[in-house]
Amino acid sequence: MSILKSISSIAKNFVPTKLVAKKTPFSNKFEKEIQSLKSEASENQTNSSPLPERLPMPPGVYNDIMQKRRAKFVRGFWQKPELSAVRLAGIKKKYILAGYNWPSKPLRNVARYYENSRSTFYHPDKIKRMEKIDACMKKMPELLKQYNLRIKLEKEQEELKNFKTEQEIYLDALNAGSRNPPSWVEEDKRQAKLKKAQSKQLIITTKKKKK
Predict the structure, then answer these.
(1) Of 8, 16, 81, 89, whose CB has the highest number of CB atoms within 10 Å?
(2) Dihedral pair phi/psi, residue 72, rounded to 5°
(3) Half-sphere exposure of 84 (CA within 13 A, CB side)
């Protein structure tokens, strides 16, 4: 128990201390170099003169150079540009070293791009489309009635047409000029003869009974 009490008392009285790295001659030398570099940079900033203004590019030179960099469409074919990217970089470097101000390529104006884009026309087009859909949905019952009537008429016309074609085929088969009539025509003729014979027999039997 005495050991535990002594440990608890030590823990209560313990004060944490910061770990400090020992300075070696190498670290001291490194710090001195950093300080000297900082002092030199501050002196340069104070004593530095403003950069000389660059000359503007000669008129028309930049446009001519960039025109040569573009491909040309001649007689239905695309021709390669006269200047390659490497040669253009070399010309740009020469002009910059000569003291000219090479104009930077203007960045895309996002607002203007959005105004002229197709996405801006989506919303008003959508509103118009929804209005058209609503108008069509209101007319839908009448359109369905018209559709059903049209389909019914088409079916009736088709049935009539089929009936007429069947009748024509039957009449053609019954025609005396047809040498090879189909079997069902002969069957119809046989049935007609039987009915005629039966009717004659009935008439004869009725006459005999009366006598």
Answers:
(1) 81
(2) -120, 145
(3) 2
Spatial neighbors of 173 by CB under 8 A, at least 6 apart, are 181, 182, 185
Q: Please report the sign of the dihedral spanned by the C-alpha atoms of residue 16, residue 19, residue 22, residue 28.
A: negative
Long-range CB contacts (< 8 A, 24+ apart) of 120-125?
Answer: none
Burial tier of 153 (Cβ tally within 10 Å: 0-12, 13-18, 19+) = exposed
* Site of tokens 């253009």: 88
Residue 88 CA to residue 66 CA, distance in Å, equals 9
* DSSP per-residue codes, 144-156: HHHHHHHHHHHHH
Distance from C-alpha of 28 to C-alpha of 180, rounded to nearest angstrom: 127
Rounded CA-CA distance 161/167 in Å is 10
State which H helix or E strand residue 62 sits in.
helix 61-68
Environment class of 181 (CB within 10 Å of its CB; exposed 0-12, middle 13-18, buried 19+): middle
* pLDDT digits 0-9 by tens, 57-116: 887 888 888 888 888 888 888 899 999 999 999 998 888 888 888 888 765 655 555 555
* pTM for the model: 0.30
Q: Are 21 and 65 in contact (CB under 8 A)?
A: no
Q: Torsions phi, psi of 56, nearest 5?
A: -70, 155
Cα dist from 15 to 22, 103, 129, 131, whole Å? 21, 65, 77, 79
